[in-house]
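Practice problem 4.
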């Protein structure tokens, strides 16, 4: 059996860090098990689904390095859903209902007032052919509900029926089908709902493992029953905890909270995002992981907390800095060039430890190749003038800084901050920054002397 997983976003907005967590867990699971990762756009919501969102989602996944083995769209698979619906009708487990939304809400309210759970009472099963004909003559169109297998032959006398599974994240699970309403699978207009289309697709595409958020746990009992009604084996299930904002609020595509697009455009490294999304709310320490393959080795679905986890964007900055500090020049050369930054490997190695993002190198490029405003305090002018005179002859190298400051120390008696800080401020315009041993050769003798004057 080839492990096959899927990520199934609805293209109704930009994916956020919570959606990305699900995509990453699926991709990493497939990677670790030599399996396949499918991207399926659940785009049956015609009014809200948009092609530009689908393209943005694909671009976000590609940026993260999550390249699918195949891409599907539910909007192309209507015939498959229609055939499955006919199979269920023929089996007598998909039945027509005619209640309006208002009528159903009044029934739920009455049930709650009587202290009963607001579960659909299957009143539509009592309708005769004449009743249905009369309702349709009035202009009503049926929606279709799936008859849950929670009875012993009489659906009007449901009994406790536990659906169980061993969840890879949450352990043993059990949900009583008698506590649930028969779900609507097909609307009055003939469009199908997620619960139905997802099962049909998962069965058709031979999905072996479904890894998704814990908000789908209740759906799982219904979907397991649906798989079996369609003659398919349910996949192995894993329901991971959900991420919230640092304030504890749920993430939402509609609000654009922590969208991958915005994080990417801010200059973050994809592995900073991947590391935090996967390791937050798990039993492992949250730290920067250099590659998806290395992150796959750390994947432990059973180690994911059963409680929601807060995602703090501030942690991204720390993780990103760790990653940037280790990036070799070859990896960033094109990005630096696009920013108009030269200097080659020597410049990058000199400044990268002072960059949270690669683009931060632009702050230091003028220091070595352009004009700056030297910071010179009045009390340091004589000191800096003598510093120019004591600059060692010959080529400025990585050893020059130490030789030069030792000479200045001996000549002026200065030491510590009073020795080093005025030089740094005059030569770079900053009071902190890259190691001067590496920076000095890049600034060069001519600029050094000009800035000390």
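Answer key:
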């Amino acid at each position: 059996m080839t492990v096959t997983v899927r990520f199934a976003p609805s293209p109704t907005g930009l994916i956020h860090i919570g959606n990305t967590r699900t995509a990453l867990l699926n991709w990493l699971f497939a990677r670790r098990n030599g399996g396949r990762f499918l991207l399926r756009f659940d785009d049956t919501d015609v009014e809200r689904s948009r092609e530009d969102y689908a393209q943005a989602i694909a671009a976000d996944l590609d940026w993260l390095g999550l390249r699918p083995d195949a891409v599907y769209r539910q909007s192309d698979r209507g015939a498959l859903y229609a055939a499955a619906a006919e199979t269920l009708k023929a089996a007598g487990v998909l039945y027509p209902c005619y209640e309006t939304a208002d009528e159903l809400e009044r029934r739920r309210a009455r049930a709650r007032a009587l202290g009963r759970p607001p579960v659909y009472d299957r009143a539509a099963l009592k309708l005769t052919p004449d009743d249905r004909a009369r309702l349709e003559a009035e202009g009503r169109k049926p929606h279709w509900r799936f008859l849950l297998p929670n009875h012993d032959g009489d659906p009007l006398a449901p009994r406790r029926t536990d659906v169980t599974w061993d969840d890879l994240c949450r352990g043993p699970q059990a949900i009583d089908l008698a506590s649930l309403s028969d779900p609507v699978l097909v609307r009055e207009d003939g469009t199908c709902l997620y619960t139905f289309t997802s099962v049909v697709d998962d069965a058709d595409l031979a999905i072996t493992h479904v890894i998704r958020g814990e908000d789908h746990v209740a759906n799982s009992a219904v979907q397991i029953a649906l798989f079996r009604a369609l003659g398919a084996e349910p996949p192995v299930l894993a329901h991971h905890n959900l991420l919230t904002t640092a304030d504890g609020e749920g993430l939402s595509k509609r609000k654009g909270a922590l969208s991958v697009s915005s994080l990417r455009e801010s200059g973050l490294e994809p592995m900073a995002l991947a590391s935090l999304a996967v390791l937050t709310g798990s039993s492992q320490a949250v730290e920067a992981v250099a590659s998806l393959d290395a992150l796959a080795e750390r994947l432990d679905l059973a180690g994911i907390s059963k409680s929601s986890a807060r995602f703090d964007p501030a942690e991204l900055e720390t993780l990103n800095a760790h990653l940037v500090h280790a990036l070799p020049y070859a990896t960033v050369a094109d990005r630096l060039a696009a920013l108009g930054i030269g200097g080659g490997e020597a410049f990058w190695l000199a400044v990268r430890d002072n960059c949270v993002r690669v683009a931060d190198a632009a702050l230091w490029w003028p220091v070595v190749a352009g004009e700056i405003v030297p910071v010179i305090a009045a009390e340091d002018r004589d000191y800096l003038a003598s510093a120019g005179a004591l600059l060692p002859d010959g080529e400025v190298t990585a050893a020059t800084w130490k030789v030069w400051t030792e000479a200045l120390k001996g000549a002026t008696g200065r030491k510590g901050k009073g020795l080093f800080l005025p030089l740094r401020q005059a030569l770079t315009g900053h009071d902190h920054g890259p190691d001067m041993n590496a920076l000095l050769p890049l600034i060069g003798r001519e600029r050094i002397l000009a800035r000390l004057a």
